Structures are given as structure tokens and as C-alpha cells.
Amino acid sequence: MSDRRMSRRHLLASSALTVGAAAATPLLGACSASSGRSGGTSGGGKVVTLTVMFKSDELTKEHIADFESRNPGIKINFIEYDGTRLNAMLASNEAPDFVRGAAVGSASGNAQELATALDPYLDKSSVLRKEHLLPVNDSFRWDGRRIGQGPFYGIVKDWSQDATLWYNRALFEEAKIEPLSTTEPVSYDELLEIAKKLTKKSGGKTQVYGLGVEWAWNLWAPISTMILQQGGRLYNADLTETDMTTPEALRALKWYVDFAQAGVGPTPLDPAPDGADLSLFLARRMAITQDGYWFGGNFVEESDEIKNNVAMAPAPVMGDKRISPTYVGWGAFIPAKAQHKDEAWKLMEYYMAGPPSEERAKSGWGIPALKSQMSLMPQQLPYQKQAYETQQAELQYAGQLPDSPYIGAAGAWNPVLDKHLQRAVKKEITVEAAGKAITDEVNKLLRQGKEQIG
Which segment of the chain is annotated as a signal peptide (predicted)? Predict the structure, then answer.
């Protein structure tokens, strides 16, 4: 895969971030709109330099040049995003002014008061206001106790409902299996049975995988989603403990064990060549992959054989409650210790509501985070139109993943889940024992987090 494809959504590595561990679309006016606070220069016309930590394939050199040309009193000192370096900068008095961050998992950083509340800016901005934002941004909200309410501490740039499915119709036809519905969700149990029928093996090797679940990227989010779909809970009321021995949790863990033991998709015991589903899917060696709307951005320049056969399906369900959340929700925040918050807000307006946001919406690499930009999502190609229609219907089930301030999201959970699921897959322990071990280890991390935050 290209760097763009990998860096766009490498969920496992990226989710360990510290602070994680959207009127007519404004164009030229976005970057120069007043926030109701100071302008782009300090007294006497002095140029302000913003330190920005982001991904260079997301905030490009062209974006930076365009922003600077529209704001001659502001220059950008760009630093490629690096989680370790960010942690050190946030802990010092040298915090960046504008930083890439994830909505899901932001509770920990917000509880530590690492980010700036954006409501004063949102209330006064003419181009980026609360009523413009889709509900996915609520995962960036924090009221001092939990996410989803209170001030906004970040804004999502784009997102996907990451449990949705992409599949290759041609592989279904070859296996003489009815394609997945593009309107009605399949159950996880049905999905696994379909994957078994689609899987082809020869000489002890897998020629075609029936299903990929991006195991190497994220376990916490899909397992959390499964628990919520059954009406279960990931945390207790004050977010200080988890219980992965409940019937809902054990059912989710067992599905992953059954998936791995069936050999229908890549796992740590049978890894994908490059740690991701895309190359297998493009090579027609994977029939279904569990990836969000963003995955469709990969197909625009592929062959007609790919473009004419791919389709998107709703997120599968486990239980009676249909929930289809985002696993991350990448965006940006302004650190509490930023030196130039007003100027950073101008960049926020430009990036989230100006030309870069239109580019993202039209690209198909994610769902816009602004209500006004939904119609910009690509529909030129047949597969894009189908995916757009499926995605629009899926929006009503977006939901929200739980987020404890005492633990990072995927970055903290994934190693624990992976370790004990592998043991259960190899039959070293039972699923019940795995659930108990996961509970004990995660609760230890939660206790440590609570002690650190107080």
C-alpha cells in the first residue's frame, strides 16, 4: 500500500495518542474570519509563528502556503506528527499550537486539562459554529466527568462508521453465494458462516480469505461495539472499572476466537503480508473486509474489475441494538499551553471549514464532519453512488463508543485483548478465563490512571 493509504487509518498505532493517547460551505473567507478575539499579528504588525503538529499528507505544503497567503501575519512551523514527541511537548512549556488528535479516546487528555475549550471560538465564529457540526464531534466534548456533553475540546476533520463492510461481488458469484445486502445488516454469526463459505484453501495455504477484520489495527472498538449492540456496558457508572466476564463481553470475545480458529481471515497467528486488508482485497484474495466508508477512496484509480465489483454494506450486528460508531474520528485540538490560540483558531477555521475540508469531502476518504458538506461526497462512479446511499442510511445508527478518562482507548486496550485472545485461540485458556484476565489487567490500568489524574 502507498504511504497515503497506510497513514490515513492505521488505527492501532495512531489511537495511542496522548489527548486521544460541520450553512453553505465557506471558501475564501474561512481562513480570515474573525473569531471575535485577537487578529493574526501581535502588536506592531509582528508575524506570529504557529507550531503545528500534523500529518503532512493531511495538512499539505499547499494548504500551508494557501493559509499563509490568506493570513500574511501568520507563519507555520510544521512538525510531522509523532506521538512520543507530542507527549513530551505537552508535558513541557513548548506545546504546539495546533495538533492532530482523535475524538474517541480524548477523555483522558481532557481530564488532564491538556486541551483548550473551543466554545468561546465556536460561539463567535462566522464559519465554524456548533450547529454546523455533526454529532460525531460530541466525542470531543467533556463536562468534567464524561464525554458527549459540555465544551468541545476538538473538532473532527473527517470520519467513518468503521464497522461497515466492503465486499467483492465477483468472489460471491464464484462461490455461488448471495451477495450481502447493501441496506440490511447481517448478524455477526451469519457473517462468520458466509466467510467460511467464501474462504478457499489449497495445499495448507489460504488462497482467498472470506473476511478481514483488521485485527492488527483495532480490537477494542469492534468488541466494544458488539457489547453495546447487545445492550451491555463496557464500564461501570463512574468509568473506573470494566467487566469482560459479562455474557455480552464473552459473546464478543468468543466470536473473535471462533473467527481465528475458523481460519477465514488474517490474525496475529496468520497475519496479512503488510498487516492490513487492502492489498489482499485488491488482489481478489479477500472477499469481505470490515472497514469504514473511507476504504472506498482506495478504489478510484483501480481497474474496472475492482470498481465494478466492490460494494459497501451496513455494519453487522450482535444482538438487538443497531449501533455503528466511528472507531477514532481524527481531527484537531488546540493545546491548553498553546502560545497562540487565537491564530491557531484561524487555522482551525481554514482547515475544518475552508478549502481543505472541501477537498476531503470530495475525495471519498471519509465522511465530512460538517452538515453542509455531506452533499460533496463523491457519487460519480457507480460504486461511489452505492456507497453514498448505504452510508447515508447508516448515519442514524452512528452512536458513540464509551471513553474512560482513566485509560487510553484502543492504544491501552488492544495489547491486553490481543494477548489473551491469542491464548484462547490456541486453546491455552478458555474464553471465560480470557475474559477474567482481560478484566484484571484493564482494571489495573484504570486504577493507575485514576491515581495519576486524582
Answer: 1-24
Pairs from 269-277 (Cβ < 8 Å, separation ≥ 24): 269/422, 269/425, 269/426, 270/206, 271/216, 272/212, 272/216, 274/1, 275/216, 276/1, 276/6, 276/10, 276/214, 276/216, 276/217, 277/212, 277/214
Clarify whether residues 30 and 118 are in a common domain: yes
Q: Is residue 402 in a domain?
A: no
> Which distant-in-sequence residues (6+ apart) come within 8 Å of 302 by Cβ?
282
In this prediction, residues 78-92 reach a mean pLDDT of 95
Same domain, 277 and 185: yes
- What digits encode the pLDDT tens for the residues 285-295? 999 999 999 99
DSSP 265: S
Task: Please give the model's pTM, rounded to 2 decimal places.
Answer: 0.90
* Same domain for 170 and 149: no
Nearest to 352 by CA among 334, 369, 335: 369
If asked whether residues 212 and 301 sit together in one domain, one would say yes
